[in-house]
Write a structure and sequence with these properties.
This protein is 41% helix and 13% strand. The chain is an alpha+beta fold. It has two domains: 105 residues, Phosphorylase Kinase, domain 1 (2-Layer Sandwich), CATH 3.30.200; 235 residues, Aminoglycoside 3'-phosphotransferase, Chain: A, domain 2 (Alpha-Beta Complex). Strands 1-2-3-5-4 form a five-stranded antiparallel beta sheet. Strands 6-8-9 form a three-stranded antiparallel beta sheet, covered by helices on one side. The N and C termini lie far apart (46 Å). The structure holds adenosine-5'-diphosphate, 2-acetamido-2-deoxy-1-O-phosphono-alpha-D-glucopyranose and magnesium ion. The site of adenosine-5'-diphosphate has 17 residues, from loops.
Length: 364
């Protein structure tokens, strides 16, 4: 739950013209506190996004905001004079002092974005067209960032997709069993421990130089891209907190995790959780339509593996958080993180059963 905050006071800290009308918690993100605020601007109601950055998760919000400023500036420059460029890339609204964030008296960091209208995010994919468009947009995002000038972006969360480290964190949580929850999650723990060899599926080829580091988004769940209400086109990639050096396949993998199953991430009826091949095929086609010209064969041949790995990794993280007392992901009911872990592991099984067919769809 978001702690009640004085959004009107926050709003006055940003360079917004108009009268504050109100603000409501917004979206279904697990990390930050997001608000949609409305303003009267000369008789027209306009919306803005105000966001409080989660300081437990992001220990250095100023370097994080430095990344986002550089990334959004670069995207804007690449988009040139397209008339719709404020819908195609996030636009930060500066604070009164000219910085891209405001630090409130409690030490909390806030930022403000233009609200992207006539588009929305989806928690569950509705059609292969949406899957195609989402993957196309994330591929384009990677492509536009490929020539970002140095210096290297800050690592906002070190070892974010280091799956062996995620496994080690799980083992530590099992060992500590600080809340006595291990006995509630035995099948999930066994599932995780029996797949240890999967954890190095991308890091090992990366370490021997077969897969390059690129600038990647690292949190490409379906609800981090806005799709146009009319055309369903992927308009704008959002949630840029984890844009940093990574592997392109992490981004494709998280799309497989979030845009192939008809079930919500926290669905309790596991019979609904399944990897649907037509959605996967749409993801491959959409992603290759924009990323195809820079992707190496060593990356292409691991698209299906990436889906399995990232789904497994997020399952590990939900399970670890459940065992540790739900300290990382926001929860809205008891056992929420365990429910989320179960859907991930069910999806891993579904991918395992269809891997040969998935691999045939992205033949090098
Ligand atoms: P979190 O890190 O908590 O996931 P997000 O940055 O993804 O936060 O924002 C949460 C939700 O708010 C998004 O899923 C999206 O629906 C909405 N949102 C975020 N930024 C914008 C924007 N600029 N315009 C419109 N909606 C937005
Ligand atoms: C979080 O911020 P949000 O809700 O888009 C998390 C991702 C997880 C995802 C699982 C910074 O994403 O890594 O994959 O939840 N973001 C962070 O739904 O940890
Ligand atoms: Mg998000």
């Amino acid at each position: 739950m978001n702690k009640p905050r004085d959004l009107q006071a926050i709003s006055t800290q940003f360079q917004i013209l108009g009268e504050f009308l109100g603000a409501e918690p917004y979206g279904t993100g697990h990390i930050n506190d997001t608000y949609c605020a409305t303003y009267d601007q000369a008789g027209v109601t306009v919306r803005y996004i105000h966001q409080r950055i989660n300081r437990t998760v992001f220990q250095n919000p100023e370097s994080l905001m430095d990344n986002i400023r550089r990334v959004t500036d670069h995207l804007r420059q690449k988009l040139g004079d397209r008339p719709d460029r404020t819908r195609r890339a996030l636009t930060l609204v500066p604070a009164r002092d000219g910085r891209v964030f405001h630090r409130d008296p409690e030490g909390e960091y806030w930022r403000t974005y233009l609200f992207i209208e006539r588009a929305r995010t989806h928690d569950v994919v509705q059609s292969p067209k949406q899957a195609f468009e989402a993957a196309k947009a994330f591929g384009q995002f990677q492509r536009l960032l490929a020539d970002m000038p140095l210096p290297r972006l800050h690592e906002t969360i070190p070892h974010f997709h280091d799956t062996p480290a995620r496994m080690a964190a799980l083992e530590k949580a099992i060992e500590a069993d600080s809340l006595g929850r291990v006995s509630n999650a035995r099948p999930e723990i066994d599932f995780a421990l029996s797949r240890r060899s999967l954890t190095t599926a991308l890091l090992e080829p990366h370490r021997r130089g077969a897969i390059p580091e690129r600038i990647t988004h690292n949190d490409t769940k379906l609800n981090n891209v806005m799709l146009d209400d009319d055309s369903q086109e992927g308009v704008c990639v959002i949630d840029l907190d984890t844009v940093m050096p990574g592997l392109a396949l992490y981004d494709f993998g998280d799309l497989v995790r979030t845009a192939t199953s008809p079930a919500l991430e926290d669905e309790r009826d596991l019979s609904k959780v399944t990897m649907r091949l037509p959605m996967y095929e749409a993801l491959v086609q959409g992603y290759l339509s924009t990323a195809g010209d820079f992707l190496l064969d060593e990356e292409r041949c691991r698209l299906a593996t990436a889906g399995k790995l990232i789904t497994f990794e997020i399952g590990l993280r939900f399970l670890t958080d459940f065992l540790s007392g739900d300290v990382y992901f926001k929860i809205h009911r008891d056992g929420h993180n365990l429910d989320r872990c179960r859907t991930q592991f069910k999806l891993v099984e579904s991918i395992e059963q269809q891997e040969p067919q998935m691999e045939r769809l992205a033949v090098v």
